[in-house]
Automatic annotation (TrEMBL):
Belongs to the glycosyl hydrolase 4 family. This is Glycoside hydrolase family 4. The keyword Metal-binding applies. The lineage of its organism: Bacteria, Bacillati, Actinomycetota, Actinomycetes, Propionibacteriales. Keywords: Cobalt, Glycosidase, Hydrolase, Iron, Manganese, Metal-binding, NAD, Nickel. GO terms for molecular function: hydrolase activity, hydrolyzing O-glycosyl compounds; metal ion binding; oxidoreductase activity, acting on the CH-OH group of donors, NAD or NADP as acceptor. The record marks 105 as: Increases basicity of active site Tyr. Substrate binds at residues 89, 143.
Length: 449
């Protein structure tokens, strides 16, 4: 697990612990550049294992700050790194907000800045994997996940697969709102990571989405229904990923994010600095400290967006049935055991969506087995969806090119082309603002070699 000292690592380890199936994961190596974080998370994992009934069969955990050592002999690489840490995330947000545009981890200017910082490291990692563990599958959680997966592909081919929990979460919530069995439902979902739509909900040979769209009460029963509101969802004829709230309600979400004292990144930075410091002082309480921190973190997720929509609290069902760790585990089992599964993943388009070329990474339902993930047939994007997806794909590709070449004019294009950045002058200021506030990118890359 790259980024093995990260706060969400225990979620993945918990999923591995609960996996009692044959051929479960036997050993986990945590890799991180920061020893203190590795020690804290190792302490949490140890306590998780101790508390299971059969702790002797828990996956063995080791930790290292040497990338090649971590990669050698592994079957699966989980990549969940955060280049520049949460300090970097707060800069991504702040520079944009101060210039009057959205500052968010993966959407708009913040996502481009985060991409520029992350891609050189992600591609360096991809090269090391190709050299040291060429047989390994890479499961990429690193955000911006679609862009990062596309940048790693030239080095790893289809052995890199990007994941996100939001599409399956949306599908499951929509299915549950109608009382459908989520495991027997096909989600006609398509787009890019954090920029997709649910256009059909097929079960028993029937598409249930029209029924859901017509039913205001059921729409009020789940997160995305409340966020977007029944009348807009009916007009759209689809249910967007929650991140599209930043596009469809751009003014309101921007104002809401600007009005709070702490951005999401700053909130998490403060919260996690406390967690790591406290865990270093009291390693015996690592698990309890982690659980307490995690509960607070969940309850504040996308809180500004919910306020804009007057959507109230997230309820239990919005978060049930596992997040990205379950997607990762299902993906890994399907590959390792050749057990066919259907999952929404970030993979090469290969002709699935005709508005995009074959090599564009898209987020679509896939069938997965020992040969990896292959996109399934979904309905085509509408003109509106295709327009937005193509615009953002062009931004992603400019960002990838700018990160690879260091070209300022390519980076300017990435900012200026983004639908949420409304002026080339602002794009220029964003570029200058980030260049000034973000530490030397070469320093990150040199840690990987
Ligand atoms: C969702 C998204 C992830 C993202 C996370 C953000 O799960 O799909 O891509 O990393 O939320 O959560 P955070 O708590 O870091 O704001
Ligand atoms: Mn995601």
């Amino acid at each position: 697990m790259l980024g093995g000292g990260g706060f969400r690592v225990p979620l993945v380890y918990q999923a591995l612990l609960s996996d009692r199936g044959e051929g479960r994961i036997t050993s986990v190596t945590l890799y991180d550049t920061d020893r203190t974080r590795l020690d804290a998370i190792t302490a949490v994992l140890k306590q998780q294992a101790d508390r299971t009934d059969d702790s002797s069969s828990a996956p063995v955990v080791t930790a290292t700050t040497d990338l090649d050592e971590a990669l050698r002999g592994t079957d699966f690489v989980f990549s969940a790194i955060r280049v520049g840490g949460l300090e970097g995330r707060t800069v991504d947000e702040r520079v944009a907000l101060d210039l009057g545009v959205l500052g968010q981890e993966t959407v708009g200017a913040g996502g481009i800045a985060y991409g520029l910082r992350t891609l050189p490291v992600a591609t360096a990692v991809a090269r090391r994997v190709a050299a040291v563990a060429p047989e390994a599958w890479v499961i990429n959680f690193t955000n911006p996940a679609g862009m990062v997966t596309e940048a790693m592909l030239p080095y790893l081919g289809d052995r890199v697969i990007g994941i996100c929990d939001s599409p399956s979460g949306l599908g499951r919530r929509a299915a549950l709102a109608l009382g459908l069995d989520a495991s027997q439902t096909f989600y006609d979902y398509a787009g890019l990571n954090h920029l997709g739509w649910l256009r059909g909900l097929q079960s028993g040979g029937v598409d249930h989405l029209p029924k859901l769209l017509a039913d205001s009460e059921s729409l009020g029963d789940f997160e995305e229904g409340r966020l977007f509101g029944a009348s807009w969802l009916r007009s759209l004829g689809a249910i967007p990923n929650e991140y599209l709230h930043y596009y469809y309600f751009a003014r309101e979400t921007l104002a809401a994010v600007q009005s709070v004292e702490k951005t999401r990144g700053k909130f998490l930075l403060d919260q996690q600095s406390d967690f790591y410091a406290e865990t270093t002082r009291r390693p015996g309480d690592a698990l309890e400290l982690w659980q307490k921190t995690r509960a607070e973190r969940e309850s504040t997720y996308m809180v500004e967006s919910r306020e804009v929509a007057d959507a109230g609290e997230r309820d239990e069902r919005d978060m049930s049935a596992g997040g990205y760790e379950q997607v990762a585990l299902s993906l890994m089992r399907a590959i390792a055991h050749n057990e066919r599964a259907s999952l929404i993943l970030n993979v090469r388009n290969r002709g699935t969506l005709r508005h995009l070329d074959d090599d564009a990474v898209v987020e679509v339902p896939c069938t997965v087995d020992a040969n990896g993930a292959r996109p399934l047939t979904v309905s085509q994007l509408t003109d509106h969806q295709a327009g937005l997806v193509s615009a953002v794909k062009a931004v992603e590709r400019s960002t990838i090119e700018a990160a690879a070449t260091g070209s300022r004019s390519t980076a300017l294009r990435a900012f200026a082309w983004h639908p949420l950045i409304d002026s080339v002058n602002t794009a220029t200021k964003l570029l200058d603002g980030y260049a000034e506030r973000l530490p030397d990118l070469a320093a990150y890359r040199s840690r990987i070699g």
